[in-house]
Amino acid sequence: MMPNKPLIIAHRGAKGMAPENTLAAFRLALSQGCQGIELDIHLTADDHIVVCHDSTLDRTTNGSGAIVNQTLMEIQAYDAGGWCADEYKGEIVPTLDEVFELVPQTVMINIEVKNAYSGRIECKLIDLLRQRGRVEDVVISSFDHKCIRRIKQMEPRLKIGLLYQANLLDPVAYARGFDVEVYSLHPQFQMLDAEDVQQAVAQGLRVYPFTANSEKDLSRLMEMGVSGIITDFPCRMKELVDARHS
Ligand code: G3P
Ligand code: MG
């Protein structure tokens, strides 16, 4: 039997070809046929949710310093595209709200919460999702499992995913050990084996490994029957999926 088509989830947008976590990267990923977008969020000094991987601006903008110490206006004055290629000069660090304006609700947004130490970002995120009617069509993930558990307790309609890099003995048992419903597992792809995938899928869990890019790795994961793959190259995965299901 032909396995289900895995979801093509663009990592920080089409990160392999455009400046990560910018509207340009998300636009490119959408044009390449992704069905999901993974992005990372932080809270600014004035409580806006911005999309950026690092907690500082140094690597991906021409600015510097910690996001948590700067206002949205200060952060959006920096260029977030020129470091990648001249054609992307003028890109800025987007707010999550600006991403919602771009990405249709038919595309799953996987919001990865970074640095949830203060506990403030969870409330802001839930408020925004409710205001924008996005509660039911996003998946919230984090390496901080207490954070996503808190989020699920605060808004039970949300889907939550467990990000992990450890080679867990029994990922399904770990997920089932939560006192709230876990929607998906997001393992580092090198750790995954076919048995883990089969058991998780049989138990109704989605399995979204990160971040696989080579044809060999993408094909191997598809062979295992994963529910989706987080990749820097959605176009490459699209070709493989199409060839496999033609
Ligand atoms: O959500 C998958 C992946 O993005 C986790 O690692 O460091 O790329 O955010 P990182
Ligand atoms: Mg991420």
UniProtKB/TrEMBL annotation:
Residues 6-241 form the GP-PDE domain. One of its GO terms (biological process) is lipid metabolic process. GO terms for molecular function: phosphoric diester hydrolase activity. Gene3D superfamilies: Phosphatidylinositol (PI) phosphodiesterase. Pfam families: GDPD (PF03009). PANTHER family: GLYCEROPHOSPHODIESTER PHOSPHODIESTERASE, CYTOPLASMIC, GLYCEROPHOSPHORYL DIESTER PHOSPHODIESTERASE. This is Glycerophosphodiester phosphodiesterase. It comes from Paenibacillus xerothermodurans.
